[in-house]
């Protein structure tokens, strides 16, 4: 069942975020980044927005077979969030699933950084009044502390992805986060911490994006305050 994109949902999410004692990570060895969790409306069966055909993106570079296939299908409908497939030519985390975002500039707040990156990567310009609140910080294996900023898009919006950074953008229904097979946790020999996997369509989304999406479900949709910062990333995302 899809979730209605309406004022009641916006008010519920905003109330849950306001009631949350946010966990902040202070680590001078890590750089700070912000991601935009943009909530929009969507239709069932809606395809993603792609600036360049996926086949052309991978024509000169073999993608990691374990994490890539052509499209995210059977995932849209009702209230949704924007999810990007990163371009294969990027020097770090190429071809991985990600929320719009990036490194914070000197003196920049997490909110300002998330809104700036949303404009630069996705072509969507929103003001600070659209921000509903912040999720917990998530420290990554690649040397960042990520602050997720939850943003109410106010409708469908029309993404215009930056081809050098984003191969496609998808509207993923929030109902996907509440699937019976979600979340999944697996063990790896490299770490005592469980690796989190979030099934979306026919894909598995791992931390850090998977951890952010799990808290989007637990806190924003269900009012649960469980931490996600100790959930592990797969080894391919450690660099």
Instruction: Tell me the number of helical segments per DSSP (H or I, 4 or more residues long).
Output: 4
Give the SSE string. Answer: HEHEEEHEEEEEEEH
Give the CATH class of the domain at 7-49 and 73-179: Alpha Beta
CATH superfamily membership of the domain at 7-49 and 73-179: Nucleoside Triphosphate Pyrophosphohydrolase
**Secondary-structure-derived class:** alpha+beta
User: What is the gyration radius calculated from CA atoms?
Assistant: 16 Å
Determine the N-to-C terminus distance: 37 Å
Q: Report the average pLDDT across residues.
A: 89
Overall body shape: globular
Q: Would you report the number of β strands?
A: 11
Strand content: 25-35%
Helix content: 10-25%
Low-confidence region ranges: 54-70
What is the CATH third-level topology name of the domain at 7-49 and 73-179? Nucleoside Triphosphate Pyrophosphohydrolase
Name the CATH architecture of the domain at 7-49 and 73-179. Answer: Alpha-Beta Complex
Largest sheet: 8 strands, mixed
Oligomeric nature of the chains: single chain
């Amino acid at each position: 069942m899809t979730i209605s994109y309406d004022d009641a949902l916006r008010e519920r999410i905003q109330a849950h975020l306001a009631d949350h004692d946010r966990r902040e990570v202070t680590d001078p060895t890590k750089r700070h980044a912000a991601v935009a969790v943009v909530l929009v409306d969507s239709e069932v069966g809606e395809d993603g927005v792609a600036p360049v055909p996926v086949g052309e993106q991978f024509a000169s570079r073999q993608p990691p077979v374990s994490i890539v296939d052509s499209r995210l299908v059977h995932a849209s409908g009702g209230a949704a969030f924007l999810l990007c497939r990163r371009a294969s030519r990027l020097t770090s985390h190429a071809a991985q699933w990600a929320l719009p975002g990036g490194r914070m500039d000197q003196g920049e707040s997490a909110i300002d950084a998330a809104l700036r990156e949303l404009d630069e990567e996705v072509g969507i310009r929103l003001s600070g009044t659209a921000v509903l609140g912040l999720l917990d910080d998530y420290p990554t294996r690649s040397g960042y502390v990520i602050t997720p900023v939850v943003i109410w898009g106010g409708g469908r919006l029309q993404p215009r992805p930056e081809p050098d950074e984003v191969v496609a953008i998808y509207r993923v229904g929030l109902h996907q986060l509440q699937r019976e097979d979600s979340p999944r946790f697996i063990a790896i020999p490299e770490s005592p911490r469980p690796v989190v996997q979030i099934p979306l369509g026919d894909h598995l989304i791992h931390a850090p994006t998977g951890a952010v999406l799990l808290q989007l479900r637990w806190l924003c949709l269900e009012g649960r305050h469980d931490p996600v910062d100790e959930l592990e990333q797969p080894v391919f995302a450690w660099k």
